[in-house]
Here is the input.
Amino acid sequence: MSLSPWRSHLARNLSQHLSQPQSRYLQLATVGMDGRPANRTIVFRGFLDRPDQLKTDQLKFVTDVRSQKASHIQHNPYGEVCWYFTKTREQFRIAGTLHLITSDEPNPSMQQARRIGWQELSDSGRSQFAWADPGQPSADSSEISLGEPPDRDHPLKHFCLLLLEPTQVDHLELRGNPQSRCLYVCDLDRNWSSQSINP
Here is the structure.
């Protein structure tokens, strides 16, 4: 499976921003049960690799199954991320289908990917999944006990691997006059086409 045509542009941006950890932060929009959009910042965790070592286009993130975004995705699996790179002045809007890989995921390879995602987190990152339910009223902070970090080899039940399978990528380059913009679209057979469009 060859890499999608937009991947090289995204890889170049990530490489040029290695010294800026914040470049791995992007915004994810989902649709709530009331039909309204919801947006939040998440951390890019790389691309999903298949067990046969082939690369995929699926972007990896992590979330808590108790979070609002997880309930949004269960109700409506479509979402879009928006990613802006400050040094190169390039924006990527990546739309597609969101997949939640939870503790009861039946696919063994996806469960393995979930375990790897858990192991790649820092101790403090793993500890966040032992906190109280996200979005609920909080207790007095003096009553919260952080305790020992969870076991690195056994993901907590609340931990979820979140995958975005792109179906459309809108790449805007703000440098230059005129600016450059390209739209990449994926068909049902996972073949990508591209077209230059007006900025």
